[in-house]
Amino acid sequence: xxxxxHDYYDKLANWSFEDINYTSEVFTDWIxxxxxxxxxxxxxxxxxxxxxxGEKVLKTFPDCAEILGTDFSSKMIEAANKxxxxxxxxxxxxxxxxxxxxxxxxxxxxxxxxxxxxxDPVQIYKTLKENGRLLIxxxxxxxxxxxxxxxxxxxxxxxxxxxxQVDFEAVIxxxxxxxxxxxxxxxxxxxxxxxxxxxxxxxxxxxDFDEKLPIENNILKKYVDQNTxxxxxxxxxxxxxxxxxx
Length: 246
Ligand SMILES: C[S@@+](CC[C@H](N)C(=O)[O-])C[C@H]1O[C@@H](n2cnc3c(N)ncnc32)[C@H](O)[C@@H]1O
Known about the structure:
With 246 residues, the chain is of the alpha/beta class.
């Protein structure tokens, strides 16, 4: 399963959604990018786990002393290094590392970020300085639930305990203080069915969505018919944020 995930991300080699036309309405006053800015200053050292091709780091992370972005996909890191060259940004490095086998120094980073990727809070705790912060953003079980229910499958579909709860408890168990779990409510509107297709082909929301199979297309068409609004095709997202302090 782990190899399958690695190969899936290696094949994609980017995590950019710029070609997909959609809008978002955010219903929670907790914005990941703003939280990063609140927790850092020009002297901060940040580690971004599962950084993909560095899209978020290069576009949204503040300038600071050091940012290391890591990913287990060498293709992602290759693309991240190209994006870095084109960005003109300084003090940023990208390299291959498995989040479950971290080799970063102990007591080194002020902030570890992990957006939509797997984490091991025990290893993150070790690499953080005293009073260093952890910031996680994840995709929860009930994300795109109507759609997943129609397909009878999808990301976290069969989880008995929501992944937000599992992560929250793992962060507490690793020894973090001031741990908070924040549910994040977002509604997205996709401009056309093709935009929604593009999302589903690119992401693991439905696990191996195959737009070439008529049966898959028929279910999706039904979803589009039932969820088309004046703003576009509605997709209800359920994310979560977790913060903690070493
Ligand atoms: C859904 S993408 C998120 C990318 C980026 N953090 C963002 O939010 O835009 C997940 C990324 O995590 C990486 N990843 C998944 N499992 C990993 C692991 N065990 N170690 C390192 N990276 C991993 C994937 O290669 C992929 O680039």
